[in-house]
Design a protein that fits this description.
The chain is an alpha+beta fold and 221 residues long. The chain is built from five helices and twelve strands. It has one domain: Rieske [2Fe-2S] iron-sulphur domain (Rieske Iron-sulfur Protein, 3-layer Sandwich). Strands 1-4-12-11 form a four-stranded mixed sheet, with no helix packed on it. The radius of gyration is 16 Å and the shape is globular. The protein binds FE2/S2 (inorganic) cluster. The site of FE2/S2 (inorganic) cluster (FES) has 12 residues, from loops.
């Protein structure tokens, strides 16, 4: 039985003054989310049901209504204490994922490293091309990559095609979480187990019928 996700988090910055190890930083992130009130964070509540802390800690599936997401919008929910990025991609974003130029920038464009379920080993790294579902933890040292979907001539780097930018040490990912070559992060962003039990409902933490995938099996979180 899936629980309804109670809140979406605002866009997050990955800036941190020191550079703690991966384990320390993940603990810090989890603690920060737990310790700061929803109002202070400006969370957008999307459902009145609030899963209990023990349910969330146990990693029970959570349901998210994605039917009203705008094209290009990202929302962030916590699952198993991890920020899960959910994006409703635009047609331009999907075109970008298939662009020879963008593909030439990537380290693992075909998702050959086990960082995703088998059902996300495709050019869009997802079940449905329109929806990206990613674990928002940089595979370098665990910072939180910033969502920078719009192409730019200058920002955050010259000739930016849109994607995720990690401000900690400059790692870059495309809009499917595929990491660029020659950046500190070694792997694509993980993809959690998920499926759509009905149109417009995203269930995070549960595989499609007949599929088996455990997030703990990825090469690197
Ligand atoms: S944590 Fe170092 S680039 Fe993301």
């Amino acid at each position: 039985m899936a629980e309804q996700a109670s809140a979406a988090l605002p866009p997050m910055s990955g800036e941190h003054a020191a550079e703690p190890g991966r384990r320390d930083f993940l603990t810090l992130v989890t603690g920060a989310f737990a310790g700061i009130g929803a109002i202070a964070l400006g969370w957008t509540f999307i459902d009145s049901m609030n899963p209990s802390a023990d349910v969330l800690a146990a990693g029970a599936p959570i349901d998210l209504d994605v039917s009203k997401m705008d094209k290009g919008q990202q929302i962030v929910v916590l699952w198993r204490g991890k920020p899960i990025l959910v994006v409703r991609r635009t047609a331009a974003a999907l075109k970008s994922l298939q662009s020879p130029h963008v593909i030439s920038l990537l380290s693992d464009p075909n998702s050959t490293v086990d960082q995703q379920p088998p059902y996300a080993e495709n050019w869009h790294r997802s079940l449905l091309p329109e929806y990206a579902v990613l674990v928002g933890i940089c595979t370098h040292l665990g910072c939180l990559p910033e969502y920078r979907p719009n192409p730019s001539a200058t920002d955050p780097v010259p000739n930016w095609p849109g994607g995720y930018f990690c401000p900690c040490h400059g790692s870059k990912y495309d809009l499917a979480g595929r990491v660029w070559k020659d950046v500190p992060a070694p792997f694509n962003l993980p993809v959690p187990p998920y499926h759509f039990p009905n149109t417009g409902t995203l269930r995070i933490g549960e595989n499609p019928t007949g599929q088996q995938f455990d997030l703990d099996s990825v090469v690197q979180m």
